[in-house]
Amino acid sequence: MARGSGFHQETKAGAFFMATLVMWVVSVLWEMLFNKRAELVPILLGFIFYQSANWVIRSLLLNHDPLFVNTCVSLLHSSTTSASVLFILVNQLMISSGVNVNQMFEHSQLVEHTWPWAFTALCFSCGYFAYDQLDMLLHRLYSGWIPSILVHHLLLLVCFTLALYRNVTINYLILTLICELHSVFLHLRKVRRMAGFRDSSSIFVKVEWVLNWTTLVLARVVSHLLITVKLIRDASKFDKGGVELPLALFGMAGMNLLNTFLGIDLFKAYRREINPPRSHQNHHD
């Protein structure tokens, strides 16, 4: 009975998140077709690109496990997104050379202006989160009554698209995507283990863990905390009565909370991988 109840709750959760995804799709298509927002087309292109990558990976690999294919596409997204974010930041730093670089991170620059390629990169990444949400729902790659991964994607889709519709805080959101540097090693570890390579004594695995922890702290925890502090310090500079500040603070609160849970889960995974159960090893000796 308990298992049946849990399955029923997961089905209800899946139906809810599928309904929110459909509403999001209708909203984006409305903006593009009826409000003639052609600049939002990269959202659709991002969705097509990552869905196509899913099909290609599925056809090329012998392992057709939906979770393995989904993780490979996630690794592709984190790699391309982190590369694009670094490109945008370096390009802007080069443009700002000879000028006070601190101006690059002033409130008006982060809220009202948009760095070159930032809008397109955010659209493309938004298309990925829509693809990933759909893929997880179709293949039931989630668990629990309130799946954290689906909540995470829904939160990002809402924050990203509202910013894109209003063309505000684009640069802020690009800064939040620095966390994809950590996601590269997070997904790499998952792909490695699913491919059967689990030798924790190997140099590759040890280096991978060093990079995993380093990027978790710097690219995810520290960067998101700094963005949160920046938002709080500049709270008085936001338009009074606007939705930008409450939405940004709510979004960052959610991200920081998810980062905490992610850090805990990663620590548990590290302990399991570095110190595998003795009884399990002896049983196979």
From TrEMBL:
TM segment ranges: 12-34, 40-61, 73-94, 114-131, 143-164, 170-188, 209-227, 247-267
Location(s), subcellular: Membrane
Membrane topology qualifier: Multi-pass membrane protein
Major subcellular site: membrane
Domain of life: Eukaryota
Swiss-Prot/TrEMBL keywords: Membrane, Transmembrane, Transmembrane helix
Protein name per the record: TLC domain-containing protein
Organism: Datura stramonium
